[in-house]
Amino acid sequence: MMSGLRDGWDPLAAIAALIALVMMGLYVGLILQQGDQAVAWFLGGLAAAALLAIYGAARAAPRRGLALAVAGTVLTVLGILGILSIGLPILGAGVLALVAAARSQQGRR
Questions:
Q1: How far is 50 from 69, CA to CA, in rounded Å?
Q2: What is the pLDDT of residues 79-89, one digit of tens each?
Q3: 100 Cβ partners below 8 Å, 6+ apart?
Q4: How far apart are the first and last CA of the chain?
Q5: Do the Cβ atoms of 89 and 8 come closer than 8 Å?
Q6: Contact yes or no for 9/68 (Cβ under 8 A)
Q7: Which superkingdom heads the taxonomic lineage of this protein's source (predicted)?
Q8: Do 8 and 95 contact (CB within 8 A), yes or no?
Q9: pLDDT in tens, 7-50
């Protein structure tokens, strides 16, 4: 039974990546609606964290725990920075990625 859990996808990491991707779209839409320009470093951070979470969602990926930890940290920081507008879901995605990173390390023991 445990070998079946090691293969496949980690749902927590996949959900974190999905939230990051959705929030990228919502952020761009919200900024364009206001007539402003999106901040490149914020979008870049969301994109990088989403890619790392997608990579970390594959249970067989080498160093997936590190990728998820970095994604979770970036998402958490971005969520705190944007807490007054779109930050809460991003913060939640960061927590999910950090939990997935911790779970990936427990599975190696």
A1: 12
A2: 999 999 899 99
A3: 10, 12, 13, 16, 53, 56, 57, 68, 72
A4: 16
A5: no
A6: no
A7: Bacteria
A8: no
A9: 799 999 999 999 999 999 999 999 999 999 999 999 999 999 99
Q: Sign of dihedral through CA atoms 42, 12, 89, 70?
A: negative
Which pair of tokens denotes residue 100? 């997935």
Q: What are the residues whose beta carbons fall under 8 Å from the beta carbon of 77, sequence distance 6 or more?
A: 45, 94
> Distance between CA atoms of 9 and 29, rounded to whole angstroms?
30
Copy the structure tokens of residue 84: 């007054």
Q: Which domain holds residue 89?
A: 2-108
Our count of domains for the chain comes to 1
Tokens for 94, please give them.
């960061």
Could you tell me which residues come within 8 angstroms of residue 13 by beta carbon, excluding any fewer than 6 positions away? 53, 54, 56, 57, 64, 68, 71, 96, 97, 100
